[in-house]
Amino acid sequence: MENKTRTLYMIPYIGWIILFVVAPIALVVYYSFFDIHGNFTVGNYGKFFTPVYLKMAISSFWYAFLITIISLAAAYPTAYLLTKTKHKQLWLLLIIVPSWVNLLLKAYAFIGIFGAHGAANQFLDIIGIGTKQLLFTDFSFVFVSVYIFIPFMILPIFNALDNLNPSLLDATKDLGASKWTTFRRVILPLTLNGVKSGIQVVFIPSLSLFMLTRLIAGNRVITLGTAIEQHFLVTQDWGMGSTIAVFLIIAMFLIMALTGFRRRGA
Amino acid sequence: MGKKSAANIFLIFMFFILYAPIFYLIFYSFNSGGTMSGFDGFTWEWYEEIFQDTRLFIIVLNTVVIALLSALISTIIGVFGAIALRSLKQRQQQTLLALNNVLIVSPDVIIGASFLILFTFIGFQLGFYSVLLSHIAFSIPIVVLMVLPKLMEMSPSLVDAAKDLGANSWEVLTKVVLPYITPGIFAGFFMALTYSMDDFAVTFFVTGNGFTTLSVEIYSMARQGISLTINALSTILFLVTIVLVLIYYYLSQRSGVKGVNFRK
Amino acid sequence: MASTIIQFKNVTKQYGQDPVVLDNVSFEIEKGKFYTLLGPSGCGKTTILRLIAGFTEPTSGEIFFNGKKVNDIPANKRQVNTVFQDYALFPHLNVYENVAFGLRIKKMKKSEIDKKVKEALSFVNLNGYEDRDIQDMSGGQKQRVAIARAIVNEPEVILLDEPLSALDLKLRYQMQYELRELQRRLGITFIFVTHDQEEALAMSDEIFVINKGKIQQSGTPNDIYDEPINRFVADFIGESNIIQGTMIEDYVVEFAGKRFACVDKGMERNEPIEVVLRPEDLEITSPDQGLIQIKVISQLFRGVHYEILGVDEQGNEWMVHSTKKAQVGMEIGLRFEPEAIHVMRFNESEEEFDKRLESYTEDESDGK
């Protein structure tokens, strides 16, 4: 391609990168050095390391970890069994359709299901456990988050399993391996990249799910995302909000470095 | 045989878990009782309410306009960006791609908060245009990622062949490159459309007062507790989603885009 | 006499309602020989391999391994190893670990694994490549790793599924020699699947020619080349001129409008048959000296010989391989010996065919 045309094509794209990728991150870092009155300070960073914020950060990571592990435990066998079905692409599509339903609507559904007289409590009543407070607990937060993220965990694992060369599995059998050995020595290592992509698309967003904490968990669970929303839109303390955002960005890059960037679902 | 039926039970259970809440919503949208427990009787009341609600109609219109415009503009910028990226050297390409992907992996809250700061910093009025710009911004990298693989798989000799046959740069672009990557462009446009329709967090941050999209409206309705109008709305949205999915499935089957992709 | 290691008894394989892949196939494989299953794609040859390996079960019939029925024994319990068409090397393991894979599963001692892997790698001339990643190996090297991974387990039978098809011509020739040599040194039974007739002729002790789920003919490369049982085998293996004819009586056959002496007998009088004449058995002479006259319609130089195409007066097309040149448009004569004429009956079973051929040799010894 001639250089002139290339430059022409490049201008809007580069403009976008500067304005909407580089500038916002730079501004977040910049704002993190101002207090609520607009004075320059490093106090926000000091504040982050006080027990209140540290506890919140740790619990946010803990919930994200729980959500990721439970999603993985449910998604891997599902993806595996899906690859064994006839018309597997159709079944996969059906698994993914719920992810196309607006997240807030799904959260809203659980307000009904986990409500005092909702389906979940009716079920508990019937099997003799009796009604329980389900809504506004950390259980409901984890459950709903896992529900929302499962399709996103299934897809990359499914693709990894589906791309596995079937003659490799024949070869493993041919060399005397049992089913378990085949899984442990060949299938799992070769689908690890799918698992990593899945972890990436679940762990990072679950650090920042403020709408779920508001709708489902009451104020029982406060994630880093909740705190950022709180500071930006409620208390208007943009400096502290930006500081938390900086830590979330750092966490994001750390996780990326650990799992490697891959195209979603690829 | 026992193993097989255990596997089937597990899959059926997973499908049940995934679909039960959605059908729960749909079921109660016909409940005259006004709650999501205890079905009192059948009614169209909540649907009538929606169709009489002009405010809601305007919000739906806003959402669709934002989605279509942002998908269109981000597709144009993204496609030309991808074409330019393709012609760069490996290292520059890697750097730009890394920047490209920042917005894809960033949590919505970060995107929303940082865009809010950006708009405030440059003194941009919050409202329709800030939401539109934000949606364009987070859709561009998705389009690039959908188009770039198609470009990469295109043999460079195709372009050479077109030039050899006398095509100028413009003809190479419109007669060879764009037709070749059309499936990627469609997939990118469609993804951008669904990302935009479904976005809540980013819009929530940059919308200001007075301008609302459907997601934001649902959030504020849901915060006030159960209202079966939301159920009726979700039934309608679910049906629209199914239609869109079918169109997308048809397109992707026809164009041979492998696997099904989706938004976050 | 060599002992039988694998036996198929009336094996049929069918997937669901699809047409049968293997149709009532029976054969025996003897220890220590190099076998080739030869046929066009989709003929069922790979299915036979997968049945032996245990990747799939027969729909009906029995498979014996060393006299024991193995229909239900899974692949990981069989004394057989496979070299796959796409090599199926594990991309997450290096060369050493790929070769060691089977031994590690057998929980062999580390020192012993080390010894055996090194030995297997040196067998395929890959010493020093232990730590390489699979991705960094060339096609030919991957091929060797795949072979090493199979032989290191000391199986009684090695199955090779078109292992040379991905290699370029020169490397393919070289690997043909190496494989043949390897089989002699190891003394293991090799079962080699290919659609390349030259490869089959060059390497095998025994060839099974397969088409449409049936074994058409089995025998040594020479037998199959010289005495094809039917049109399919004659056409598939080597170049041939196949002409419709009539068996007038024993030792006299009529085709191309003339009668010729031949060495075949045992057919009905005036039985319609087909005659095979190999292009290299035809000799160019002047028209009046020739047994058949053809008009040359095209000629190609093939390096070793000229390939001449011509038509006789009855419209039969003839292919001739000759070191002599001809002129397009010229009339030439063709000469051939009675032994060059090979007569094929329609729908003759392999058993009947073998019997007929045997009777000729008996005649020869009687005549002496």
From TrEMBL, chain A:
CDD domains: TM_PBP2. Coiled coil: none annotated. GO terms for biological process: transmembrane transport. InterPro entries: MetI-like (IPR000515), MetI-like_sf (IPR035906). Its main location: membrane. Keywords: Cell membrane, Membrane, Transmembrane, Transmembrane helix, Transport. It is a multi-pass membrane protein. The keyword Transmembrane applies. One of its GO terms (cellular component) is plasma membrane. Belongs to the binding-protein-dependent transport system permease family. CysTW subfamily. This is Spermidine/putrescine ABC transporter permease. It comes from Compostibacillus humi. The lineage of its organism: Bacteria, Bacillati, Bacillota, Bacilli, Bacillales.
TrEMBL record, chain B:
It is found in: Cell membrane. Keywords: Cell membrane, Membrane, Transmembrane, Transmembrane helix, Transport. Gene3D superfamilies: MetI-like. GO terms for biological process: transmembrane transport. Its main location: membrane. Residues 60-248 form the ABC transmembrane type-1 domain. It is a multi-pass membrane protein. CDD domains: TM_PBP2. The chain crosses the membrane at residues 7-30, 56-85, 97-122, 128-148, 177-195, 201-220, 232-251. This is Spermidine/putrescine ABC transporter permease. Belongs to the binding-protein-dependent transport system permease family. CysTW subfamily. InterPro entries: Bact_Polyamine_Transport, MetI-like, MetI-like_sf. Signal peptide: none annotated. GO terms for cellular component: plasma membrane.
TrEMBL record, chain C:
It is an enzyme of class 7 (translocase). Gene3D superfamilies: 2.40.50.100, P-loop containing nucleotide triphosphate hydrolases. The complex is composed of two ATP-binding proteins (PotA), two transmembrane proteins (PotB and PotC) and a solute-binding protein (PotD). It catalyses: ATP + H2O + polyamine-[polyamine-binding protein]Side 1 = ADP + phosphate + polyamineSide 2 + [polyamine-binding protein]Side 1. NCBIfam families: potA (TIGR01187). Keywords: ATP-binding, Cell membrane, Membrane, Nucleotide-binding, Translocase, Transport. Residues 6-237 form the ABC transporter domain. The keyword Coiled coil does not apply. It comes from Compostibacillus humi. Transmembrane segments: none annotated. CDD domains: ABC_PotA_N. Belongs to the ABC transporter superfamily. Spermidine/putrescine importer (TC 3.A.1.11.1) family. One of its GO terms (molecular function) is ABC-type putrescine transporter activity. Part of the ABC transporter complex PotABCD involved in spermidine/putrescine import. Responsible for energy coupling to the transport system. This is Spermidine/putrescine import ATP-binding protein PotA. Its EC number is 7.6.2.11. One of its GO terms (cellular component) is ATP-binding cassette (ABC) transporter complex.
